[in-house]
Amino acid sequence: MFNKIARLILVAFLIWLISHLFFFQVLNIPSASMKPTFNEGDFILVNKLCYGARLPETPLSLPFADSKIYLDWIKWPYLRLPGYSHVKHNDIVVFNLPSETDLPVDERTFYVKRCVALPGDTLLIDSGKVYVNKKRIENGFELPENSIQNKTFYNPNFFPHFSSYKWNLDYFGPLTVPGKGIQIKLSNENLYIYRSIIEDVEKNKIQNVNGVFYLNGLPVSTYTFKTDYYFMLGDNRHNSIDSRYWGFVPENHIVGNVLF
């Protein structure tokens, strides 16, 4: 009898584990950043099949949402199974927080935001209104004019955290989202925007020596990105920590989309 119960428990656990890793996952919304779409405390079901399930990069970890209990003795390369769709404009996406660079990607905090810009898109926030490829998008709270911050106000907490880019909650960009195969001409200005993903995500060393750019020790004038990136915003834009703070979301950080 005991052996039978133990087998049933083991089978149930394996079914749950496989479902958790490859199909669906339940998460809790911890903040008001996605109001009015989600309220603080809501539970959501994450669909991992849509974009393709991402295989674990740190397999020696407890499979719970916010455990941060893992061993990095074994690390697997990034691999995603085929999905039946891809990230689209206006998708509500679950992803790992890119700014937690001291943790393995799949152990970083889960975030839930709306994808407003795809690879190759140009994003601009002007007077609190969001434009993608010069077309206004209207998701999110619309703010009264007297809530809009001054255009000249510089907030150093905002990406790319450099005073030449005097960006804030309501004035941000224009900014082009990089993507796989997209080539840029390197300059002093855009290096502040793209350096972090070139080095931290794509694992290249880039330097500017007296106006000459070196990539892994070799002189270059352009850079071609190796992966896709996305720009995420919270619907409650004046109360949301999102891509305006930490920049682009790499493709390998994407977990799934919100089913309901």
Notes on the structure:
- With 260 residues, this protein is an alpha+beta fold.
- The protein has helices at residues 2-22, 188-201, 243-246; strands at 24-28, 43-47, 92-96, 110-117, 122-126, 129-132, 135-137, 172-176, 183-185, 206-209, 212-215, 218-220, 222-224, 229-233, 249-250, 254-258.
- It has one domain (32-182, 225-258): Umud Fragment, subunit A (Ribbon).
- Helices cover 15% and strands 27% of the residues.
- The strands form four sheets. It has a seven-stranded antiparallel sheet. Strands 7-6-5-8 form a four-stranded antiparallel sheet, with no helix packed on it.
- The chain is globular, with a radius of gyration of 20 Å.
